[in-house]
Please model this.
Amino acid sequence: MQNKGLIKFFAILFALVSIYQLSFTFVANNVKGEAKAFAGDNPDKELKYLDSIGKEKVFSLGFTDFTYNEVKNKQLNKGLDLEGGINVILQISIKDVLKGLANNSKNPVFNKSLADASANLEGNKTYLNKFFEAFEANSKGTVKLASPDIFANRSLQGDGGIDFQMSDAQVQKVIKRKVDESVESAFKVLRERIDKFGVTQPNIQKLGETGRILVELPGAKDVDRIKKLLGGKAQLEFWETYKIEEVGNFLVSANEALKATEVKKTETKTVAKDSLNALLTDAKDSSDVKKGNNPLFDKMIVQGGGPVLGYFAVKDTAAINGYFKRPEIRILLAADQHNAKFVWSKPTTIKDAKAKEVEAVELYALKGNRDNVPAMSGGVVTDAKDTFDQMGKPAVSMQMNSQGAKVWEELTGRAFSQKGYIAIVLDNIVYSAPGVTSGPIAGGRSEITGSFDVAETKDLANVLNAGKLPASADIIQSTVVGPSLGQAAIDAGTTSSVLGFLLVCAWMVFYYGKAGWYANLALLLNLLFLFGIMASFGFVLTLPGIAGIVLTLGTAVDANIIIYERAKEELREGKSLSEAVAASYGWHGAMRSIIDANVTHVLTGAILFIFGTGPIKGFALTLLIGIVTSLFTSIFIARIFIDRNIAGKGDLTFSTNITKNWFTNFHYDFIKVKKFTYVFSSIVTVVSLTSIFFINGLDEGVDFVGGRTFQVKFEKPVDASVVSDELSAAFGTPVEAKILGDDDQLKITTKYKIKEDGIAIDEEVNQKLYNALQKYYPNTTYDKFINSYNGKQVGVLQASKVGASISEDIKTNSYWAVLGAMAVIFLYLMVSFRKWQYSLGAIAAVAHDVVFVLGVYSLCYKFMPFHMEMDQHFIAAILTVIGYSMNDTVIVFDRVREFIIGNRKGSFEDIVNASINTTLSRTLNTSLMMIIVLLTMFIFGGESIRGFIFAMLIGIIVGTYSSLFIATPVLVDTISADEKHTIEDKHNKA
Model:
């Protein structure tokens, strides 16, 4: 081997760099262990301990020292499925951005196009492009985007803006740029909010040009708080309010009008006496005041006063909003109140008429106007701080700029003179509505008070300082993983990795003897390089990533197997050890097969990385890094040990006494049985397709159809069917509950309101889940049931949501990923082998494998004890199967090509049969390594990835079969008779 010294230098250098990078991870873990021991089971105490030593030196290399914060930032990042935390994808509303750019245009073509774009959105289509298509279809050339009442308004004119003469194509370019600027603005606002939230190593990134933003918060535990922080638009407004006596007559009239459609004359319990009863004295019949006869007042828990019209249950707000939107109800408002805007407060705890504490929201009527704009917007706020009010309760103080101070003085002066109130509204929720008792307030300083805790005031000040989002940000996908579940995943991944490593090492030594030890040393160094690269570049380790590492154990020795088998062949032909090794490492020895096989791996891994998201991208990344490191260690590092043996004892045989004659002189006629294998595979294909399309279908997970899933741990075993029925009744829609691992753990799936976005919907689903399951958790509060914390053993351990829009994109990406992988591999093999028949044989085998795996999942998902859903993990498994199926096929095809170029005698079928038989030990050994590590992961890798591993396990087994019995027979049958005769004449003459 040339440049052996240079290779040794780089190997030692890479090893030292990897050890240096990984040392930070070991130190950080040790410090965390000390913090955990110090804090016991108190997560807050643990966090305070780590914060307190953040600037202390905890690691010394002699010539330099590192603080804990520096060590923490250099450690190997763990994904949410290992660390615990929250992952969300936010969709910035491009519709809101377009409305803002058009100054809320009333143009009917513009607004119809916005609605059509929303209704007709398809997978992988951006909302903006759909809007442009809809506008062109609706306008039919009669209305231009550059119309004065659409985008050629005053705010978009000027340099780089839009003028009346521009064509629609020119306007589209400007609008695309403006939309990108809005998304960038939202990205900066969210990043500032997250930076101030204080999460360790947060990750926030834009996802292409989709208007989507990925946010990962490792270690975050308070689910509802995080979602409010991310989803809040921070639209701060100041409104004047009506008092209860000013709209009391309207409420009475509305209540009377609603009786015609809403009253159910059943209950006759008397309404509790309160301040509003005076408004009902004109009722003709005292029975009108009975419970059940007053659609509006019956929902009122307690009467209000001042600006508060009343207190209502959160569950009734939707119905009351619907009442106030009815034209026949709004017409009852006084002439000067027609633009009144009814809004709610944040939830608060009050006592009802029976002195029982209940959660309620306050109803307000704001003094609206024709343009629906507030008396003052929050854009004038220059600074916000969390503080405490005069009563010692948490509050937020604000400072306004000079213009805002002037308007604020006028506004408070008017409220003082009229004895009115000013509502402080954030994202359409009233936080407080104070009166003004001491005259106009000068200087521009104000305060938001209410039923806050300290965390809420900190978050509120945070979002006000970060600024408002340019458009609403809806959470369309989210995953919440508890820290205890993450630790379980780490334990399972570690167990399966170590066991897989030991099994692979044991087999290599058993089969190849001393050469197997050399391969194992290279494998150990390969793992060091792999982890070192991930730590150096800040890549994230996920649970599927650990699966990728375990798979790397199998593939890392694949190149060694190919080289060793070739060396054994060369030794049998009478070559010396040095000559055999040189030949096996040559291009015409094993290198061509190794390169072709690994290029197909790289192609499928790259496609998976491009189309995958989250943990799947981590799986693909680990595979790609593993391919590079395993090639380096297998080809160069193992060669160094082999050359040392040649220079010394020279006793390598690449086998043991037990295995030295395995697969030698093996002559099975694979081509002869092709009729039987064709029939068998055809039957399997027909049965699989029939089950997929006509009988069972496929168990499409929420990744493909949208929905919410919860992994819920109960205090004792439960009946999944009973829980499913109870939840279905509570949600009013079918809810699926499946046992996940043990009988006391369920995977719960619901599509309840999945097409509706918003924080309120997420909270509603969480609350319904808790209420329906509360009887199973007599001593567990809502917060402990939903939110994560260290040591959590029961309740929601993991939760995920996939919105309807992003699920369509995921499904489309998955189709393209599989088809794209097959197309790219077809093209590569056609270029490499220079005959399309090789590509066709390989693709036929791959298609057979994909249909086979899909068929198994379709036939078995209803009764298997682990989930077999079609999701991103499954697509990752399919792409991995494609890559490894190609591996076996390419090894056989390379031998076919070698024999055709050489002087192998016999018919074309004899040449192909000989190719299969002489490479059988490579094929079976490679597949056996994969099966060993996959079985290890299947048994010990954890419940969450068992279905993912099972797909690969089935795929590798059937892929080995198809390489032997499908790919090569298709090659034989598609090569023309003339070409076969040409090959046979050449070989037999020679």
Notes: Confidence is low (pLDDT under 50) at residues 266-275, 278-289. The chain is about 55% helix and 15% strand. The radius of gyration is 34 Å. The first helix runs from residue 4 to 39.
